[in-house]
Design a protein that fits this description.
Blueprint lengths: L17 H17 L26 H4 L5 H14 L4 H28 L4 H17 L4 H4 L5 H18 L8 H15 L8 H12 L6 H5 L1 H17 L1 H5 L14 H20 L21 H17 L5 H14 L17 H17 L5 H25 L3 H11 L4 H13 L3 H14 L4 H13 L3 H16 L5 H17 L3 H14 L4 H13 L3 H14 L6 H15 L1
Helix pairs in contact: 1-17, 3-4, 4-5, 4-7, 4-16, 5-16, 5-17, 7-8, 8-11, 9-15, 13-14, 14-15, 15-16, 18-19, 19-20, 20-21, 21-22, 21-23, 22-23, 23-24, 23-25, 24-25, 25-26, 26-27
Length: about 575
Amino acid sequence: MKTKPQLKKAPEKQANRWPFLAAAAAAVIVVFWAYGPAMHGEFLFDDAGLMYASPGATATLTVWLRGLRPLLQFSYWFNYQLSAQDPFTYHVINILIHCLTTGLIFLIVRRLLEWSGIEPGQRTMLAGLAAAVFLLHPVQTEAVAYIAGRSESLSTMFAMAAFAVFLYRRANAASWTVVLGILVLFGCALLSKEQTVALPALLLLTDFWWNPGFSWRGIAGNWRLYAAMAVGALGGLAMVWRLIFGGASSAGFGLKDFRWYQYFFTQWRALFVYLRQFLFPASLNADWDFPISKTPMDHGAIFGLIALVALAIAAWLLRRRFRLASYGFFVWLVLMAPTSSILPIQDPVAERRLYFSMLGLLLILVDLVSRLELNRKQLASAAAVLAVAAALATHARAAVWSDADTLWADTLKKSPDKMRPRFQVAFLYYARQEYATAAEKFAEAAKVGPPRADLLADWGLCYSAMHQTDKAIDKLKQAAALSAMDATANHTTAHIYSQLGQVYGGAGRFPEALEALNQAEKFDPSYGLTYFYRGLVYFNTRECAKAVEEYRHALQLDPTLQDGQTALRQAAACAAAAH
């Protein structure tokens, strides 16, 4: 039996809390078991480029907080204080964040079920079902088992906390205290990852849909909230302006691989990948080989658009009969919009993006399940079976994310025609110092598609480790020339030239080494490794005073440089002896 929708919470009889506590404890135990294979998993993929994986990482907090996402970096700094480079505590924190987010999902879904008129006993069971799916769905593995995936879970946790505060406010019009709480949480979300900029749109949709229902009155009554959030959203946009419009290598309107409208065409198809992975997560992939639709007709993109428009029209027309499900569909679109609309991202599909938007799909699920008229025992049994199946699937997927060999073998099997998995396999052999095999794998990767600058650079370093200096220099020169063509890749170009200088220096070709390092400085004067290698050249040519100057400059720019302090002391001793 359904009751009239209302914003304010109806008084209910005090429930026994022990079943809820027992269920929460059981959920925590199950989720830790499900992610058990990855608990001691190594740093993977993008982890290697983050500070916590750097052997010379400093404990100084201010160094960690530079750049975007300072709150995310603070969480990594906290982990670093706990266990330095032992990944175990990083995985524990990831799972705890996931558990907290799941608790918020339970509260949010339960509140929306109340507004949609579901009776108290059933709404608790349905909210529990939604929370169980969110907690144990195997598509979440990339956001939870992958340490760098914390950007998704942490930002979503703060965004869902802000949404929960919004939903559980005591009056239709949010008080200034509530506004402040939402703004603080919204700011925390933005400082963790930028896609949570969609939160104001979610609140606007919610006010229109439920307060009091398909009306602009709720939005008008909450003007103070939306005015303040607009300022916050503009502040967030200012933070990422250079990322969006400055031509970052992985995202933004300056992306060279395709244009914004081509990415938009592609997302008409990509959104259905996320739907399929939510319903049938049988082919999860860490690196999707998903072709770009250069035109609306390319790869059938137009049919994806037609289907999306048809679903949106159906959701609107059925908004009164399937109020929660229709709302859930639009919630899903709103929360997917930052990553699946017009802002180009190098990877058109990434499973971790479903973490933020899954709420919308869960609302569709619970609305449809509520219409099956199952009793509490039947609903509990169905939820338990689903949770067990999901936990088993997540356990298996977490095993894939437990080490680099397993991850990239699985990815290469599913994306055999994509260069990046082959590149990563080659790099694994390089890291294990199996240089001959690594060189063969680099060559195989280069045949799959046009070789990128980073692949050529690592290939060159592989040859350098094999003492094939001429081949190493040839590959590094190719990499530098390719990178220099991209005006947005100055840092990468500086890195490649610095490596070229290091190889020249190792071969005793010091004039050529200095020439390469001078080129590196021109492309990025703030790249510390350039000065470190130049200091090494001066040290080897017994110009120790110059070496000291270069080493000091390098450490000023990058205090985390491995062996930097040792090299500085040796150069200082040399300079003192010469003096």
